[in-house]
Design goal:
Elements: E1 4-5, E2 10-13, E3 25-32, H1 39-43, E4 55-57, E5 63-69, E6 72-80, E7 86-91, H2 95-100, H3 102-105, H4 120-128, H5 141-149, H6 155-169, E8 171-172, H7 177-181, E9 187-188, H8 192-196, H9 200-205, H10 210-221, H11 223-227, H12 234-241, H13 249-259, H14 273-282, H15 289-296, H16 303-313
Antiparallel strand pairs: 1-3, 2-3, 3-7, 4-5, 5-6, 6-7, 8-9
Helix pairs in contact: 4-16, 5-10, 5-13, 12-13, 14-15
Length: 332
């Protein structure tokens, strides 16, 4: 079941103080999910660091997201209402597209009941986290570009690069974000053309090496073809993304987990995940990708969900080796 919702959004014209030109009209809708829903667990994979210019989680449980839809830029505000209902408001040319896609974004197409835990740890975590659903944005480039930035660097380096590039070459998000967040408002990521025009020295300043920047430039040249993967089954979508040199299984899986809600997209080639899965399911913190896939085999079709539950269980090995050392290529 996809849940109950108000079939079409209701336009609510209103003037938000300081919201800027073209941002005065807000559109709203509500949706009732078919079961428990934890907005923080569902939406957290979209957050690229604590200062992500395109995503913000507020202490009151409200979530803001700025993105570039097929209809244009849009800002989405989502919060939980009484009785389990979700309330959403959107601004900008992409507002209607975002609200139409709200159920999918919040996991309406996900099938958590298909997951059958074979390990006690996963059974307990599933019981304790009933609100976990796998999101689906329907947008490939939005997740592909930051995933490329995260290749073989520390998360702090990747988050910094994403933050600098989006704030410099993106556009201010429509809606009342200036009032809500002040000078560090939300930004919509650059479109394909804007990415293609980023000068080499700006990639360097953001700490992005030539290999990752070249991969992004190859991807944005065929952005429309990349976006088509959002409507494909997982094997075809994985193959489509990996047609681009520099995009391998790790990057493709990290992207499709978000864009397609791919419950079986396993992140192979990760520095830490095999050891985490091995430790949780077999007591072997030195597991490699091959052993990880063997341990996850009973969950075929739901292997990404299994890894999400493992990460949420808190049963992860203590770090023994030092973290990867950040490289400041801007000073090289």
């Amino acid at each position: 079941m996809a849940g109950r919702f108000v079939p079409r959004t209701t336009a609510v014209p209103r003037q938000e103080p300081g919201s800027g030109a073209g941002a005065a009209s807000a559109t709203s809708r509500t949706w009732t999910p078919p079961g428990p829903l934890d907005l923080r667990l569902v939406l957290s994979p979209l957050r690229r660091g604590p200062a992500d210019p395109a995503f913000r989680a507020l202490p009151d449980g409200t979530f803001w997201r700025a993105t570039r839809t097929p209809a244009g830029p849009g800002t989405l505000r989502v919060s939980a209402a009484h009785g389990g209902t979700v309330s959403a408001t959107a601004w900008g040319p992409g507002a209607q597209w975002l609200l139409d896609g709200l159920p999918a974004l919040l996991g309406a197409g996900d099938t958590p009941d298909d997951f059958r835990p074979r390990h006690r740890l996963l059974a307990l975590t599933q019981h304790r986290r009933p609100g976990l659903r796998l999101l689906r944005t329907g947008l490939v480039m939005e997740s592909l570009i930051p995933s490329i930035l995260e290749q073989k660097v520390t998360t702090d380096e990747a988050y910094r690069a994403w933050r600098l590039l989006v704030r410099t070459y993106g556009t201010p998000a429509p809606g009342p974000v200036g009032v809500t967040f002040g000078t560090h408002g939300l930004y919509v990521m650059p479109d394909a053309r804007a990415w293609s025009l980023v000068p080499s020295w700006e990639w360097h300043r953001a700490g992005v090496d030539s290999k990752r920047s070249a991969t992004i430039l190859r991807a944005v040249r065929v952005a429309r073809r990349m976006e088509e993967a959002a409507a494909m089954d997982l094997p075809e979508a994985m193959a489509r993304l990996q047609l681009i040199p520099g995009i391998g299984p790790w990057t493709a899986a990290e992207t499709l987990q978000r864009s397609n809600g791919a419950a079986d997209a396993v992140t192979v080639g990760d520095l830490h995940l095999p050891g985490i899965v091995g430790h949780a399911l077999a007591g072997n913190r030195n597991a490699d990708d091959e052993e990880m896939l063997e341990l996850l085999a009973p969950y075929e079709g739901q292997r990404h969900r299994a890894t999400r539950l493992i990460m949420l269980s808190g049963h992860t090995p203590a770090r023994r080796a030092p973290k990867m050392t950040p490289r400041d290529i801007a000073r090289l």
